[in-house]
């Protein structure tokens, strides 16, 4: 019995020892599993944070690219100082009064034929424009083989002996014919292009040549007589004469003129008709009264 009891006791002690040896091993496995889960969770969190960080970096990069694109676009939209200077120079050239007048002079040479009417008005003391007091009618045809053709009729012209006369002038290559209403003679003179009237009221060279008496200033673009026109103000040094001139921005020709002289009423002239497509013949350049009076040939 004692031997069996001793054997049983020893077996029990060995089983107990084995049981104690296994418990720590199971605990370690549980801890490793927890650790793996924690590590996996931590790895997932790190991965999420990394991905978020990468997304934020990409977003920031896109914003930076967008900002750079916006900046480049703004820089492209903004003209350089050199471009701004060129634009200012171009604008200054366009608005130079001498250039505008020279353009009008050049424009007049571009028409091979035309017919026009200027209407003249007095200006009242309060500045209002009175009814028309006279007209200027002009017909013109270019001639390649000699002096140009023209016909001119000025009505309402103030002369010393007759305050409301009409002056007639006409030119063919053979002669320039001159007649004043009320006189009993017609004068023939040598034909020459220096007598050909201009589209403008005055020969515009008197505003631009070296002996010009006028100081010019540009006043802007205005709508007048149905045109958009450059307005130029001309004044003598003494200030006794003021002339306002308007030139069509499209064709360049003069379309209005206001004149004010010290001690006299002002005059407003308006271009009321201009036709550059008119067909003219030599019959358009004859004065009908010339056959009624004796002719004085001064050629």
From TrEMBL:
Coiled coil: none annotated. Keywords: Signal. Residues 1-19 form the signal peptide. Residues 47-69, 77-94 have a biased composition (Acidic residues). The keyword Transcription regulation does not apply. Residues 19-95 are annotated as: Disordered. This is Lipoprotein. It comes from Shouchella lehensis G1.
């Amino acid at each position: 019995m004692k031997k069996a009891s001793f054997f049983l006791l020893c077996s029990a002690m060995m089983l107990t020892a084995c049981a104690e040896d296994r418990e720590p091993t199971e605990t370690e496995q549980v801890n490793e599993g927890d650790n793996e889960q924690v590590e996996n969770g931590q790895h997932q969190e790190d991965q999420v944070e990394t991905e978020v960080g990468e997304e934020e970096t990409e977003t920031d990069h896109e914003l930076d690219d967008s900002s750079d694109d916006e900046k480049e676009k703004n820089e492209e939209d903004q003209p350089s100082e050199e471009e701004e200077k060129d634009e200012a120079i171009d604008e200054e050239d366009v608005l130079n009064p001498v250039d505008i007048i020279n353009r009008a002079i050049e424009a007049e040479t571009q028409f091979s034929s035309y017919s026009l009417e200027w209407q003249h008005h007095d200006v009242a003391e309060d500045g209002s424009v009175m009814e028309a007091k006279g007209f200027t009618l002009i017909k013109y045809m270019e001639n390649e083989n000699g002096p140009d053709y023209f016909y001119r009729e000025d009505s309402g012209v103030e002369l010393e002996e007759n305050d409301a006369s009409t002056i007639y002038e006409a030119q063919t290559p053979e002669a320039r014919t001159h007649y004043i209403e009320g006189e009993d003679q017609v004068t023939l003179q040598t034909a020459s292009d220096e007598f050909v009237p201009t589209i403008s009221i005055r020969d515009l060279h008197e505003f631009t040549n070296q002996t010009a008496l006028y100081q010019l200033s540009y006043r802007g673009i205005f709508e007048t007589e149905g045109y958009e026109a450059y307005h130029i103000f001309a004044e003598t040094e003494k200030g006794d004469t003021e002339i306002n001139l308007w030139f069509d921005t499209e064709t360049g020709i003069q379309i209005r003129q206001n004149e004010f002289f010290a001690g006299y009423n002002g005059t407003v002239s308006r271009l009321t008709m201009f036709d550059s497509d008119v067909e003219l013949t030599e019959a358009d350049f004859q004065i009908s009264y010339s056959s009624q009076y004796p002719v004085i040939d001064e050629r």
